[in-house]
Structure formats: C-alpha cells, structure tokens
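Researcher: Let's do a round of design. I'm pasting the structure tokens now; please hold your answer until I've finished.
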C-alpha cells in the first residue's frame, strides 16, 4: 500500500498486473477487491486504465510440453518392457496419466 501511495502521490507511471478479476466468475473465486481491499482497489481504479489480456497460460503449455517430452522419451523403453513381460499395462511410471492427457501424441 505504501509503495502504491507514494507512486500515486508522485504521479509516477506504474503498471499493475493481476490474475484476479473484478467480478466473480464462480462463487469460490476471489476477486481483486476481495484480495486487496476496497480502499486499495479504489485507488487502482483512480490510477489505472484496465486492459484485459486473454490468452493461453504459458505455464500450463510448458507443463504439458514437459509431460509430452517425458512420455516420448520413455515410450520406447515402456514398449520394450511390455514385450518382455516385465511390465503390466498401466504400471509404468506416469504412462497412463500422460497417455490420458495427450491422446494425440
């Protein structure tokens, strides 16, 4: 609050970013006002112009890419183990989960 107040009083350019919405999208979701309080949210409304940026969450994309890479890296070993009878279906580490998450791999 002190940093925002100081920048506000000095009329300095400040860019705020948040993943919190101004409205409840579902009953369990916390809004920006719930998170930071009425006074600070009011200050932000006064200081800022809201720009909504929508798009893919790059963290989820990276997580999926890591799972795909792991799945592809271990797939030949899993096939070989299955042929030898050493592994039963669904018992290889992460194989079932990765396959269910990425049926188009």
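Researcher: That's everything. Go ahead.
Model: Designed sequence:
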């Amino acid at each position: 609050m002190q940093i925002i107040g100081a920048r506000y009083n000095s009329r300095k350019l400040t860019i705020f970013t948040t993943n919190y919405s101004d409205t409840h999208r579902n009953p369990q979701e916390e809004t920006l006002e719930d998170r930071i309080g009425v006074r600070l949210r009011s200050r932000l409304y006064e200081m800022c112009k809201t720009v909504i940026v929508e798009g893919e969450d790059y963290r989820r994309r990276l997580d999926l890419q890591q799972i795909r890479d792991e799945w592809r890296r271990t797939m030949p070993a899993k096939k070989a183990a299955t042929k030898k009878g050493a592994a039963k279906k669904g018992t290889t580490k992460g194989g079932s989960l990765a396959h269910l998450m990425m049926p188009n791999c």
